[in-house]
Amino acid sequence: MTNIAYQGEIRFSRYLDAAGQPVTELPGWAESPEILVEYYRQMTLARQFDTKAIALQRTGQLGTYPSLLGSEAIDIPTASLMHGEDVLIPYYRNHAMQVMRGSDWRDVLLYWGGDERGSANPAQRQDLPNCVPIATQCLHACGVATAFRIRGEKRVAVTLCGDGATSKGDFLEALNVAGTWQLPLVFIVNNNQWAISVPRAMQCGAPTLAQKAIGAGIRGEQVDGNDVIAVHEAVALALERARGGKGPSLIEAISYRLSDHTTADDATRYRSGDELKAGWEQEPVKRLRNYLHGRGWWNEDLEQAWQTEVSKRIQQAVDDYLATPVDDPGAMFDHLYAELPPQLVAQRERVCARAETRRQQRQG
Amino acid sequence: MNESITLVEAVNLALAHEMAADKDVVLLGEDIGVNGGVFRATVDLLERFGPRRVMDTPLAENLIAGLAVGLSTQGLRPVAEIQFMGFIFPVMEQIISHAARMRNRTRGRLSCPLVVRAPFGGGIHAPEHHSESTEALLAQIPGLRVVIPSSPARAYGLLLAAIRSPDPVIFLEPKRIYRAVKQPVEDNGQALPLDTCFTLREGSDITLISWGAMVKETLEAADELAQQGLSCEVIDVATLNLMDQDTLLASVGKTGRAVIVHEAPGHGGMGAEIAATLSERGLLDLQAPIARVTGYDTVMPYYRLEHHYLPRAADIVDAARQTLEFA
């Protein structure tokens, strides 16, 4: 005798096509301008920041920086839908989410400018800082969600990662425990098709990454990650379910990395210009702009005014960043332990004295 | 009231005390719930504190560490059990890259006040990968505290201190002496300091320095040397990071001679760090080269050979005599 022990399916959702035309009936909230116009403002703000950050890196004023280009339609609705008391456990490409949740663009620049204080803004509350070791943050998200469960709080942990991260044991261990304990947690995979130089097809033999959820006993779905309406719908449902005690979800958002991996990378070494061109045809900002124009909710005058406003805001952040003096070298000791251990006092004094000597020498 | 208990019972007593005193203390690990831990360190705690605070996790050590990091950033005080130190390696990334760095990299906005407990060391005829002593790998990590008790009373007091510490602590339990001796331990909630060595015996001729299970052989060696008319000062280092250098230096300042005893391989071991410290800061007090009695620079042998690997009291006596006989 043989029965089907389990049968699963992964749904893919899209509301707007690449030209910004509805391909199906839109949810009610997308029939009025408030939310979508705000999303558009945040997405273009993020994109203009990104351009500026890369320019700063190219002129030696910022360290290696990972571009957010192509992830705007994933990050902006997600950050917008999260409650303030929820906790974001980001990877290293979610700059716009961090700012929307209370950080400042100056902090983003400070962080990628090599300064730990970029993760210190108290406005970030209990959100975790950028996570560089791939997929390790997914486990932190499970710990954060477990803390909510222990305390009986109606809060949700939201974590993001790239497609490459889904190959790591950490990711699978996180999905597994989230399913076992039915944690209030949302996993979002920004499947931008590339993990530095390794394409999606070389990460995993499964047709979707979302189906990894099936193996963990949790909800999994795919959305068009260039379609802000599809992402909004999926994230809103996942947050509502998590908050209501109905368990975790995995959302695989299909996007395209329109940038190099970071400013230290050169994607022309491993991917074709044609593929990149095709990626730009799907891109999320133009798609939403076309929809807004079609509805008469946005126009060139509004665009001009908004871009001017955005330029001002970003320039202010850049000025603040560049005006921030380098931290005192003693800082590397000051937050290592809760209190400075006596064993480290002499080392701290040495580095500070050496810095002071150099400063005096420079002043002649 | 002052019941005599074993080291592993003292661990259980400290966990129970702190869970009752602080609702933020939670336990997680493999088989720690209904089973009470493979060494019974968490026995009865599930019944007392419930499954939300005593969590049997899926079987993944990296997961346990990552959960502890996440829990601790939200203000909880997780105490994670890794069943054997031989399985601590998947934990290392979370501990090194996150737990030990979180406070520094957020400039104090978030921190990881967590404890990772793991039984360690050889001598119990265990399967492969169940007998390692890799404390030196952990003791080098900035931001971390590494603590090793060597008696029931110190297990109780140091574990309380570890759980209350605002910093992440690795708490390594010498399983060879989990049940070797019983000692009266009062459940008074008194923590011991994490910033000091413990001088177990005062002496004037030579300083014997050790930690964990080897403290037993070190004390036996001190007894043997006492019968030969030699007065040994015996120090249990207890906290390997951050190490109390001053007590060690003061003792060697008095005796002028030191033997360092540990089970882990000598090469790159904590004995080397201690010897370097004594040389850097106490060279003029030394009357003889510092000796080390350690495990060999080999893979920890499987159990038929492990008694050849583990240092014996006689080895410590020999090393001490050579040190004392140095002109």
Please, could you describe this protein's structure?
The complex is a heterodimer of chains A (364) and B (327). In chain A, the strands form two sheets. Chain A has a six-stranded parallel beta sheet with strand order 1-7-8-4-3-2, sandwiched between helices. A two-stranded antiparallel sheet of chain A has the order 5-6. Chain A is an alpha/beta fold. Chain A is 46% helix and 9% strand. By secondary structure, chain B is of the alpha/beta class. Chain B folds into two domains: 4-184, Thiamin diphosphate (ThDP)-binding fold, Pyr/PP domains (Rossmann fold); 198-325, Rossmann fold, CATH 3.40.50.920. Helices cover 37% and strands 19% of the residues of chain B. Chain B contains twelve helices and 14 strands. Chain B has helices at 7-21, 45-49, 61-73, 89-99, 102-105, 135-139, 152-164, 214-227, 245-255, 270-282, 306-309, 313-325, and strands spanning 4-5, 25-29, 54-56, 77-81, 115-120, 145-147, 169-174, 183-184, 198-201, 206-210, 232-236, 239-241, 258-265, 291-295. In chain B, the strands form three sheets. Chain B has a seven-stranded mixed beta sheet, sandwiched between helices. A five-stranded mixed beta sheet of chain B has the order 9-11-10-13-14, with helices on both faces. In chain B, helix 3 runs parallel beside helix 4, helix 8 crosses helix 12 and helix 9 packs across helix 10. Chains A and B meet through helix 5, helix 6 and helix 13 of A and helix 3, helix 4 and helix 5 of B.
